């Protein structure tokens, strides 16, 4: 905390040259300012969202009708694999890190992130990682096509793309770990005087917990893919049954990373929702302390449920039952969160600005994803659901109208603070309604397809699945096109518009330090630490 | 409602782009209007009840948890919607800023879900134990996944019978890129094979599932269960088709296994025990005849490397032609 106070106003005058940003490319290349780095993360995320989305469009176009009309099955598999990798590591995770970079210092009253140069490094790893990953589309044999889970032995069958995939995952992993270290150090050391942990905004809390999850599991992924690499190139047999290895062990290791990873993609979303709902309900968050405990419980439980991804892979009955019970248990703290948000709205005074619309959409549709998650936890029924389109519907409900809607809500909530301009509210609301309608047309029928017996990850299907696939594809195209409105709203807002006040949401009840500084947030903020109560 | 018209369209083999789009839009509109009440006239929306002892149990658990979820959704969404209607700023709602927490409420909404979950977990655990009990089987068959076909080996009394089961020719041709063949005109498109697995009804059939190359998964929805086929592992599964449900049941590989993942169906022909015995006798007679003659190329043991070579194969119209044809080239 002492760091925040050290930068006295007179010392700052002596360094007037450092007041504003560098000009040109140097500003971005050598960026150490949390706002610039946050902006770069968010821009990368938006670009990757459209790249991954374009791949999804190829998938939905091929699935519009039975028969192969557009792409070879091998290319279909590449699109499906790359869509997942790009969306998870390129769109959702960098978006949360971008929001953390922008908002954590502003919310805790810190002048910047604690480790600015590390921050620069962790961002600049990513463009290289994604250039490497996307360039696999151009190498002989094409991009990785074994699914983002990279199960051996299948993953080992891909040629030149394989080492590139592994190296890009290493880069992403290092970036995530460094980013997480930065978040933890910043939150634990740079809080303004008086801001105790329990007074800290929920977004910072969920990110603190997420950062610990990242540090715990990204090395596990790195280990798993490194073992794949040595199996492929150095003739080890970690996962090769013929050499005494164990393909099932890969699944255990991967999902020990993979399940906490799921929560890495949703806990910061919970934090954003916990910021937005109180503001537009004009009422403090209900049960704020129990929200923190619920988040921590979910994070803990996320480490002991990985087996539910492997119910059909042949685990002992006792293991199946353990993972079933631990998975069902997650419904309890998640339920607490949903009930607390609902209680926050109860006897509030609700208005429906774009961030609130996205938050409400999140509440309903994330809950639908939660219900299908509970269904998937029931092992016997999972023998039918597993590897079917029901699973696809489930995780897209928690990730798209869940995580992605929360990110969009967060962007619409804080964008005027970043740019100093109000965006076109009507456009943003249109974006919300089109997205909400189409996302349901896109993903709800996939529940039916899965229950009726359509396996996931197939490029072509039996004719009885035609109708729902067509509906789903129409929803997919509609959802994809609707996102252009999002880009337009952001670009317009960056370029100009009605000026926002410091509070931005005057008339609602925004709460927190970020609303005490002017809009746009000055290049250097909280050089003198604010006093919290 | 225009559900009848939709059903007719479903059968009619027309295939102009306009018709396809009109049908899709019609279905979309009808689905929005009809909701789940149209389930009968619609393409399938729910899990099949199935024809085995286990599939009935699984279907029951599925419906139980589904209705529990629906009930919770009605309650929770009901409260949310009420809040959205009653406490609107535009209607002059005044926020009650003192309502910040209630220990009683939070204890209640922690304990009630726990009780619901316990109630759901008990029958699920019971069924789970039943599913994993593969003892006292009347027939054992080894199922081996290959890229991209299945191989079945009968053990015990029927030993000696073994064969590959590959996607049928007409599905294979129709599924080639821009084949010009409408899949709707192909009987059981992507769900038919040259040699189906044959099992008796009323008998507990144990399947030993493994793989010769990458991970596959054996899934027939009407039987209620699926299991991964993992190289180096043998997973067990049992199927007991209820008597009276003899017939042909279809499924697909359920684990991504490469380029041909969508093209390795599973077809099971369930016969009465008497018919099954006749089939076994016929197969054994044919085997005896064949053992006198040299082994035909089609069953040559070196098929796996050929299959692997097809990973990088160009998208020629014959890329997924049956292996027999390739070997004789």
How would you describe what is shown here?
- Chain A is mostly helical and 533 residues long.
- Chain A has one domain: Up-down Bundle (Cytochrome C Oxidase, Chain A), CATH 1.20.210.10.
- Helix content of chain A is 67%, strand content 0%.
- Chain A has helices at 2-6, 9-14, 25-29, 34-62, 73-108, 116-135, 161-189, 202-233, 247-264, 267-281, 288-301, 317-345, 354-377, 379-385, 389-419, 425-452, 466-495.
- In chain A, helix 7 packs antiparallel against helix 8.
- Chain A is globular and about 65 Å long.
- Residues 1-17 of chain A have low confidence and may be disordered.
- Chain B has 8 helices and 10 strands.
- Chain B has helices at residues 3-11, 17-34, 53-86, 103-131, 169-174, 273-292, 303-309, 323-328, and strands at 139-146, 149-155, 162-165, 197-200, 205-211, 216-220, 225-229, 235-239, 247-253, 265-271.
- Residues 1-15, 32-41 and 297-329 of chain B have low confidence and may be disordered.
- Chains A and B meet through helix 5, helix 11, helix 12, helix 13 and helix 14 of A and helix 2, helix 3, helix 4, strand 7 and strand 9 of B.
């Amino acid at each position: 905390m002492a760091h925040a106070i050290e930068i006295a106003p007179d010392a700052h005058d002596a360094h007037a040259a450092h007041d504003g940003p560098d000009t040109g490319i140097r500003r971005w290349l050598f960026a150490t300012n949390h706002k610039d780095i946050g902006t770069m993360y968010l821009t990368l995320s938006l670009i990757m969202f459209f790249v991954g989305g374009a791949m999804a469009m190829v998938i939905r176009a091929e699935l519009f009708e039975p028969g192969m009309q557009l792409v070879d099955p091998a290319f279909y598999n590449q699109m499906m694999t790359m869509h997942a990798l790009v969306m998870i590591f390129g769109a959702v995770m960098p978006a949360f890190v971008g929001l953390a970079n922008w908002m954590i210092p502003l919310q805790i009253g810190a002048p910047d992130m604690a480790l600015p140069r590390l921050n620069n490094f962790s961002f600049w790893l990513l463009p290289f990682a994604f250039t490497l990953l996307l360039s696999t589309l151009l190498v002989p044999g094409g991009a990785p096509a074994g699914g983002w889970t990279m199960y051996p032995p299948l993953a080992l069958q891909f040629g030149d793309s394989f080492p590139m995939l592994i190296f890009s995952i290493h880069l992403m992993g290092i970036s995530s770990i460094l980013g997480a270290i930065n978040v933890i150090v910043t939150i634990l050391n740079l809080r303004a005087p008086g801001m105790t942990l329990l007074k800290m905004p929920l977004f910072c809390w969920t990110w603190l917990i997420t950062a610990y999850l990242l540090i715990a599991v990204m090395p596990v992924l790195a280990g798993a893919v490194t073992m794949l690499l040595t199996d492929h190139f150095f003739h080890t047999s970690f996962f090769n049954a013929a050499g005494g290895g164990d393909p099932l062990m890969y699944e255990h290791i991967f999902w020990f990373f993979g399940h906490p990873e799921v929560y890495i993609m949703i806990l910061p979303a919970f934090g954003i929702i916990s910021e937005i709902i109180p503001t537009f309900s004009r009422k403090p968050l209900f049960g704020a302390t129990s929200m923190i405990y619920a988040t921590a419980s979910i994070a803990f439980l996320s480490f002991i449920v990985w087996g539910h991804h492997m119910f059909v892979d042949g685990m002992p009955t006792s293991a199946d039952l353990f993972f079933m019970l631990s998975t069902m248990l997650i419904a309890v703290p998640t339920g607490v969160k949903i009930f607390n948000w609902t209680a926050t709205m109860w006897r509030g005074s609700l208005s429906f600005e774009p961030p609130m619309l996205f938050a409400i959409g999140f509440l309903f549709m994330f809950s639908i994803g939660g219900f299908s998650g509970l269904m998937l936890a029931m092992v016997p029924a999972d023998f039918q659901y597993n590897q079917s389109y029901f699973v696809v519907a489930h995780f897209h409900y928690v990730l798209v109208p869940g995580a992605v809607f929360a990110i969009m809500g967060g962007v619409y909530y804080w964008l005027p603070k970043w740019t100093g301009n109000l965006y076109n509210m009507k456009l943003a609301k249109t974006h919300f309604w089109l997205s909400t309608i189409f996302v349901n047309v896109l993903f709800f029928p996939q529940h039916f397809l899965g229950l009726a017996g359509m396996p996931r990850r197939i490029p072509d299907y039996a004719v009885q699945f035609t109708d729902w696939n067509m509906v789903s594809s129409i929803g997919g195209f509609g959802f994809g096109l609707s996102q252009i409105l999002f880009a337009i709203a952001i670009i317009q807002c960056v370029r100009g518009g009605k000026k926002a006040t410091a509070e931005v949401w005057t008339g609602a009840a925004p709460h927190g330090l970020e609303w005490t500084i002017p809009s746009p947030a000055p290049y250097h903020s909280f050089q003198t630490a604010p006093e919290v109560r | 409602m225009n559900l009848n018209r939709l059903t007719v369209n479903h059968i009619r083999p027309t295939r102009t782009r306009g018709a396809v789009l009109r049908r899709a839009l019609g279905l979309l509109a009808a689905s929005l209007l009809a909701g789940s009440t149209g389930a009968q006239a619609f393409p399938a929306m729910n899990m099949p009840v199935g024809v085995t002892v286990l599939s009935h149990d699984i279907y029951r658990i599925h419906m139980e948890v589904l209705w529990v979820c629906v009930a919770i959704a009605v309650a929770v969404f009901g409260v949310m919607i009420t809040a959205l209607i009653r406490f609107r700023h535009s209607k002059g709602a005044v926020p009650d800023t003192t309502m910040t927490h209630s220990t009683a409420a939070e204890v209640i909404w922690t304990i009630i879900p726990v009780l619901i979950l316990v109630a759901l977990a008990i029958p699920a655990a019971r069924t789970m134990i039943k599913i994993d009990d593969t003892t006292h089987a009347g027939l054992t068959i080894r199922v081996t996944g290959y890229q991209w076909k299945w191989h079945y080996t009968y053990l015990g009394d029927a030993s000696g019978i073994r064969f590959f089961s590959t996607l049928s020719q007409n599905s294979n041709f129709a599924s080639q890129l821009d084949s010009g063949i409408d899949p709707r005109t192909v009987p059981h498109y992507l769900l038919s094979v040259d040699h189906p697995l044959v099992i008796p009804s009323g008998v507990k059939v144990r399947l030993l599932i493994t793989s010769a190359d990458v991970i596959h998964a054996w899934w027939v929805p009407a039987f209620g269960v699926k299991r991964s086929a993992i190289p180096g592992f043998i997973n067990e599964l049992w199927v007991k088709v209820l008597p009276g449900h003899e017939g042909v049941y279809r499924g697909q590989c359920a684990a991504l296994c490469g380029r041909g993942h969508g093209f390795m169906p599973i077809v099971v022909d369930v016969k009465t025990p008497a018919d099954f015995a006749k089939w076994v006798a016929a197969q054994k007679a044919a085997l005896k005849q064949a053992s006198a003659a040299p082994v035909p190329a089609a069953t040559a043991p070196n098929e796996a490397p050929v299959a692997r070579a097809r990973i990088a194969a160009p998208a020629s119209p014959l890329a997924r032609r049956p292996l027999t044809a390739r070997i004789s080239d």
